[in-house]
Design brief:
The protein is built from nine helices and five strands. The chain has 212 residues and is of the alpha/beta class. A five-stranded parallel β-sheet has the order 2-1-3-4-5, with helices on both faces. Bound molecules: CO-5-methoxybenzimidazolylcobamide. CO-5-methoxybenzimidazolylcobamide is lined by residues 59, 93, 98-105, 107-108, 144-146, 148-151, 174-179, 194, 196-197, 200. CO-5-methoxybenzimidazolylcobamide binds next to α5, β3, β4 and α9.
Amino acid sequence: MTTLELLAQAVAAGKAKDAKALTQRALDEAIAPTEIVDRTLVPAMTEVGDKFKRSEIFVPEMLIAARAMKEAMELIDPRLAAAGITPKYTAVIGTVQGDLHDIGKNLVATMWRGANFRVIDLGANVPPAKFVAAIQEHRPHLAGLSALLTTTMPAMAETVRAIRANAGVPVKIMIGGAPITQQFCDEIGADGFAPDAGSAVDKARALVESVP
Ligand code: B1M
């Protein structure tokens, strides 16, 4: 097997130490950092997300795969930065005001990073004005809103309204979280909904790529 094949296996299996060593080996073999990301790490995490969607793996497996990916990216990021290479798409993400649940949101952020998005994570309990300010500052292609409580769903609607009214940036808005449905998404005028972190990658790609 090639170094890149072994690296893909290590990430998918969540073997962080192996992933780091194999990334270093790939760099030593003069494989371009972009090739390691695009041909190995992103497809490996996509496969992880697909397995999660099919319930073949669960949150813990996904988290350890994400950690392995993070270890690999720590070696690659400085080289990409030095070469002036940045991800094509940027996203901001946060859990809406009044809501402290961040495990699912963190998982979505990690999967988006795995899909090679630059992700600015605003944390949990994020007021609408903070989303608006972050969108104005970073001009992302995508804004991700998470809510886990039925009582914070109105804050999600309010955040969508505030972004549309005040951000002045043509950002796509994606929502998710246990009580969220496609129907709610349509009601509050968000652009997309995903039921889990694996689908959140597909939906994010579809939304950003739908912009000409
Ligand atoms: Co809370 N809690 N909690 N809680 N908590 C729930 C959500 C609840 C269902 C438990 C229950 O009653 N059975 C219930 C909500 C009921 C409701 O509103 N219908 C509840 C409650 C009531 C509360 C408190 C009000 C309890 C209290 O104090 N009386 C309180 C509220 C605090 C607040 O937010 N203001 C509270 C507090 C907490 C803790 C702080 C203790 C802790 C959160 C810790 C943390 O997140 N750092 C906590 C936890 C852990 C839970 C449960 C047990 C687990 C949630 C979780 O992390 N799931 C939960 C019960 C349960 O689900 N079994 C519960 C795992 C996570 C991977 O899934 O977040 O759904 P999830 O994310 C998924 C998808 O939803 C989706 O992808 C993720 C990965 O597949 N997704 C997105 C999420 N965001 C997305 C965004 C996207 C796309 C997809 O696009 C942007």
